[in-house]
Write a structure and sequence with these properties.
With about 575 residues, the protein is mainly β. The protein is built from eight helices and 31 strands. The chain has a five-stranded antiparallel beta sheet with strand order 1-2-31-30-29, with no helix packed on it. A four-stranded antiparallel beta sheet has the order 3-4-5-6, with no helix packed on it. It is globular. The relative contact order is 0.13.
């Protein structure tokens, strides 16, 4: 079906000369109360879903904290040292936080408490409040809105707990969404064996659960049949059918034998809550405690789950392999073809690795040749012509490097096109029915550590990728000001060749309350943020822009802000579980 343009009333279209570019950039508009905004998927009918990071004014609960404890005193001393290094005077004391409501009135105190709670040790310690700064969003004609998944109203402060993972992976042609989230943490009293004094712990019912959400907001949890300790499920793609919907993802089938032994030995509920102990074992093992398998859920038009089909795994565990194994389905098209990843044997050895696969006729089939030294890979998307895209990794120039690929199932051919340069990491995020692939790759050839990424477009059959930033204008409408956006990620492309993704731009820096930040001399500071954008083809020509020096913060995908510690669990998933 033809893509319907989002209402122009809510899209701030940038004015560009038709002769200075071949694509027009439109910012989709960010969610009020959040700093960073992303696109995760777009349907052919124009439904746009995404993710917003850096929620302002995260709620801090201090009621359970002992301000005489050495941990928070030491953290405060380190904070004072940090202020001295930047020639600023600290604006709060621990007493202000404890007795004067500083976390709600002083942005520096608020940021300090976020850092304190997000430290490596406390972020996994159930005796401390858990916070998450990423929320699912929906772009519509009325503007950007939050889509709550499993979060609930807090009993300790106004609003949601802001303690859940939230991710919308895919949206069907009629606006029905699929994704996953975690249960909110609940403040609970726990008394250790042989102790009289109760402790405060923050516990939750499940780590991850898939969900389907109707266009009018009705939620259908995809609860796994095996749900001990909450179980595990996630929905990664959805397609509309005549009878309803087909949804693919991953689901827990049982607990691995070794992990069950760990639970039996350690999680007796005497020294720590059982659920906290189980989460610790889950966190400290690569595949967690659950055996997970690719799955397809079938729903009717009334959102009743009519069938659940486990799709299998690409190896047979041996008798002495008692740890967890996994497979997952990440993409499904209108032909019913399902693709994803599975653990397989590497070159017929006992070693396990994860490779892209298709799930077909009860079989799990690899399609990338391990003999070419590809060590692992993923499927990220698929079109209705059975062309699958993603990435695979191998050693190139002394470093493990990911390269984007496309697999034409009908011709059974895999192609790894040339990208920005030999050791550039690249991934393909989406492919439309016209055979145009969009993705992202590293463009900074001289930096061997953190390299800048930029979005690209590649047409199947051509020899090289095109940097999307080369298709945008050099200057704003005044002809003098440099164009203020850099395309960092191309996430989705529809059959009108309209591209949706993430751009960076430089803005006035804001603190954790959303207030503008000034330096010691009173000058406004600036930072790079991410915004969700749409690129529309126009009749123009590519313009060669003159080189310019760009400040470092403008060349990063985003600065490392106060909330970055809360976003680490999302770093991997943002680039994966999405498709139309």
């Amino acid at each position: 079906m033809k893509y319907k343009l989002l209402a122009a009333s809510i899209l701030a279209t940038l004015s560009t000369s038709a002769m200075s570019a071949t694509y027009k950039l439109t910012e989709l508009g960010g969610l009020d109360g959040a700093k960073l905004n992303y696109v995760t998927d777009v349907s052919e009918n124009g439904h746009v879903i995404g993710l917003s990071n850096g929620v302002y004014r995260l709620p801090i609960d201090i009621s359970y904290i002992d301000f005489d404890d050495n941990a928070i005193k030491s953290a405060y001393e380190s904070e004072k040292d940090r202020f001295e290094l930047i020639d600023k005077e600290i604006t709060f004391t621990l007493d202000d936080i404890e007795n004067n409501d500083a976390v709600n009135t002083n942005a520096d105190a608020h940021t300090f408490m976020i850092r304190f709670l997000a430290s490596d040790s406390r972020s996994v310690d159930s005796e401390y409040q858990k916070l998450a700064s990423a929320i699912a969003t929906v772009y519509s004609a009325e503007g950007s809105t939050e889509q709550v998944i499993f979060d609930e109203q807090s009993l300790d402060y106004d609003g949601l707990t802001r303690s859940t993972s939230n991710y919308l992976s895919a949206v069907a042609e009629d606006g029905v969404m699929a994704g996953w989230g975690s249960a909110p943490y609940e403040k609970t009293s726990f008394t250790q064996a042989d102790e009289d004094e109760a402790e405060t712990h923050f516990l939750r019912d499940f780590i991850r659960r898939g969900v389907v959400i109707s266009a009018d907001g009705v939620k259908v949890p995809l609860t796994p049949e095996f749900d001990e300790f909450g179980g595990f499920s996630a929905a990664y793609d959805i397609v509309k059918t005549e009878l309803g919907y087909e949804v693919v993802g991953t689901v827990s089938t049982d607990i691995a034998e070794d992990r069950q032994e760990n639970i039996d030995d350690r999680c007796d509920g005497e020294d720590e809550p059982v659920s906290d102990c189980v989460e610790s074992i889950e966190r400290n093992n690569n595949n967690g405690i659950y055996n997970k398998r690719a799955v397809k859920w079938t729903l009717d038009n009334n959102f009743n789950i009519t069938n659940t089909e486990i799709l299998g795994i690409g190896l047979t565990p041996k008798d002495d392999e008692k740890f967890a194994f996994k497979s997952g389905a990440y993409a499904i098209n209108k032909n019913g073809l399902i693709a994803g990843m599975s653990e397989v044997r590497y070159k017929d050895t006992d070693r396990r690795t994860t490779m892209p696969v298709i799930f077909e006729n009860g079989e799990v089939k690899e399609f990338i040749n391990q003999d070419d030294d590809w060590q692992l890979g993923q499927v990220l998307s698929m079109n209705d012509n059975d062309i699958i895209v993603g990435y695979a990794s191998k050693r190139i120039e002394g470093r493990t490097t990911t390269k984007f690929y496309y697999y034409d199932k009908q011709n059974d051919t895999v192609v790894f096109p040339s990208d920005y340069f030999a050791s550039s990491n690249s991934i393909a995020n989406d492919v439309n029915d016209n055979g145009i692939i969009v993705g992202e790759g590293e463009t900074d050839i001289f930096n061997s550590s953190t390299r800048r990424r930029e979005g690209f477009m590649y047409t199947i059959g051509e020899d090289k990728i095109v940097n999307l930033n080369d298709l945008l204008p050099c200057y704003e409408a005044d002809g003098e000001t440099r164009f203020g956006y850099n395309i960092a990620e191309a996430k989705s492309i529809n059959n009108n060749n309209e591209i949706f993704g993430v751009a960076t731009k430089t803005v006035e820096k804001t603190d954790s309350f959303g207030n503008v930040v000034r330096d010691v001399d009173g000058n406004i500071e600036h930072e790079s943020v991410t915004v969700a954008v749409k690129l529309t083809p126009i009749s123009g020509s590519v313009e060669e822009c003159p080189a310019e020096e760009v400040e470092q913060y403008e060349r990063q995908s985003a600065s490392f802000p106060w909330f970055a510690f809360l976003l680490l669990p999302f770093a991997a998933v943002r680039r994966v579980f999405r498709k139309k």
